[in-house]
Amino acid sequence: MAVDMADQVLDARDQRLIAALQCDGRLSAERAADVLGMSPRTVHRRWQVLIGDGTCRVIALPARPSAVGALLLRIRVLGARRDALAAALAARDDIPFIDLSASGDEILAVSLTRPGTRDHLVFRELPATRAVTSVSADTILHLFAEAADWRHDVLTEEERTALTPAALTSAALTPAGPTTAPTTPPDPGQADQTDPTDQTDRDILAVLADDARAPAAAVAARTGRPESTVRRRIARLTATGLLRTHVVVDPRRLGLPIDANVLLRVAPDRLDAAGRALAGHPAVHGAFATTGTANLQAAVWMRDLADLYRFLSRDLAGLGVEAVETVIIGQAVKRPGTLTAPPRRPPT
């Protein structure tokens, strides 16, 4: 019987090389080798294998239009119709995240919407779907951490700092600013009003969207711009933090098979401090302040259930947590850079 590649944990060297790309998606093999104590040839060869066989992808993230907000949806659905509904939601551009609970009767999703509007999906479409038994929607009020901020905890702090571009290091030291929610790419025909890029920059970013490590020569060929211009623009976009890269990798390959959403109720005067603390936790790949009874939510990856238990019973202590609900994720259907079909249920 064939072994599922997702269940094969990468060795320590490859995990460190993926973590290095999380620091800088366009990192050179020479720089990574110097910091990690490997040979440039080894780094280049292993990256070729890891990216070539689909173990990881490096993508460029779109700018975030400031006017777009997001809702966290919990959709309870009749089991037999779950897969069809998840597939329909995954086809929508305004749904960037979809998870299926391990219990099998719940879809968890992020829906993009303008703050304060009566969302058509939540109030009209889902309630009219006979397979849906209930829908709850909480608005994201503040983003503490998102998937692109997560760093696999296999590098030292010194290594991570040495590999991270100065612009990103400065941003990490800056206190969280205005509320920002996960978003989809802006309409290519209309730039965001606050977008400082011009058409050349936007064309370059569009090419890098699916492969942020594309050589400047390849980007130049696809955009019709001179290679020297492309190199200069990529360097400027990186230095100013406008080129944001994200490494897409199955956490199971990193030895983190437990995926869970933790919903917390925190005293209001402790909310900001608790959110910032969660954002800095090595297991947390998403942390949001939200409306609703659970006013703080965190997405975590863990090695096993014992680690998840320690997180709940020990790491949350002292954060002002009054109540906790934990939802184990059975499958991540749609996340940045990934889209997988929901598992088919065997006929009964």
Beta strands, count: 11
The chain-level mean pLDDT equals 86
- Percent helix: 25-40%
Which fold does the CATH topology of the domain at 69-148 and 255-337 refer to? Alpha-Beta Plaits
Subunit arrangement of the protein? single chain
Q: Strand order of the main beta sheet, please? A: 2-4-3-10-7-9-8-5
SSE class? alpha+beta
Name of the CATH class of the domain at 69-148 and 255-337:
Alpha Beta
The run of helices and strands is HHHEEHEEHEHHHHHEEHEEHEE
Q: Note the gap between the termini.
A: 24 Å
Major sheet attributes: 8 strands, antiparallel, barrel
Strand content: 25-35%
Which spans of ≥5 residues are poorly predicted at pLDDT below 50? 173-194
**Rg computed from alpha carbons, rounded to a whole number of angstroms:** 21 Å
What is the molecular shape? Answer: globular
CATH architecture type of the domain at 69-148 and 255-337: 2-Layer Sandwich
Number of helices: 12
